[in-house]
């Protein structure tokens, strides 16, 4: 997780006079190579680039996703788009026999169906009960150098908030998405796929879908998500749960 400094440590030199009328030697000069110690409060370490309110909302909208398929179990992350719709990656939920959703406070959420986007690594999951919170979609994609926060469940574990910046826009390295994607230094792990990417005001600016060997993230920008959502039925195609007995024939 990236950390930000609350301010440099102040170097203080104390002069102690041991007797009246005695002037001590001057202290040595501060070395040019002095590097202040970086201190980060526990609250900042947890929240990344988000305010306290933004972090609370991020907790409530992020959902742990577990896809049981014929070939094994895939773990990922999703986030609420509205009260009963979840966004995640296509590769997280495709080929499912059973989708299991779980919130940060341990609540299980039942699924009615899932749909896959044909031109991006995105999927919609519909739920049978209301999700706690969902983000506002940013009006525009983030600019290069802009701070971001990734909220997800790496390795299917605890909710993690990771800070980073937008490095640049680039062609999709695995050819899964429509148009350019964001390359960021926010480090992610397996299970982070489908994580919400938020700006400093808590607005959604993208969705994590891949990483490189050093853990840096690739993100589908919010403009691509909006374009696919606007396509209605053409944007997502419903998938039926797979029967493993049928698939093995």
Automatic annotation (TrEMBL):
Which Gene3D superfamilies does UniProt cross-reference here?
2.40.10.120
User: Under which name does UniProt file this protein?
Assistant: Serine protease
Under InterPro entries, the record lists: Peptidase_S1_PA (IPR009003), Peptidase_S1C (IPR001940)
UniProt organism field: Populibacterium corticicola
Instruction: State one Pfam family annotation.
Output: Trypsin_2
Q: Which GO terms describe its biological process?
A: proteolysis
Q: Which UniProt keywords apply?
A: Hydrolase, Protease
Mention one GO molecular function.
peptidase activity
């Amino acid at each position: 997780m990236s950390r930000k400094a609350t301010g440099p440590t102040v170097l203080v030199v104390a002069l102690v006079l041991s007797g009246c009328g005695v002037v001590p030697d001057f202290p040595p000069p501060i070395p040019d190579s002095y590097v202040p110690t970086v201190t980060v409060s526990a609250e900042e370490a947890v929240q990344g680039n988000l305010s306290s309110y933004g972090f609370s909302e991020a907790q409530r909208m992020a959902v742990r996703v577990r896809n049981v398929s014929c070939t094994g179990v895939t773990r990922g992350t999703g986030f609420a788009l509205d009260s009963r719709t979840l966004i995640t990656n296509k590769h997280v939920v495709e080929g499912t026999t059973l989708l299991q959703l779980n919130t940060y406070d341990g609540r299980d959420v039942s699924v009615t169906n899932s749909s896959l986007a044909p031109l991006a690594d995105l999927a919609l999951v519909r739920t049978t009960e209301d999700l706690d919170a969902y983000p506002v979609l940013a009006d525009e994609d983030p600019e290069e150098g802009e701070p971001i926060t990734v909220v997800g469940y790496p390795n299917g574990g605890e909710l993690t908030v990771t800070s980073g910046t937008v490095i640049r826009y680039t062609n999709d390295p695995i050819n899964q998405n429509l148009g350019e994607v964001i390359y960021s230094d926010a480090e992610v792990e397996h299970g982070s796929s489908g994580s919400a990417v938020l700006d400093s005001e808590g607005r959604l600016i993208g969705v994590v879908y891949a990483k490189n060997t050093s853990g840096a993230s690739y993100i589908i920008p919010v403009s691509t998500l909006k374009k696919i959502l606007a396509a209605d039925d053409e944007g997502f195609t419903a998938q039926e749960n797979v029967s493993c007995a049928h698939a093995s024939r």
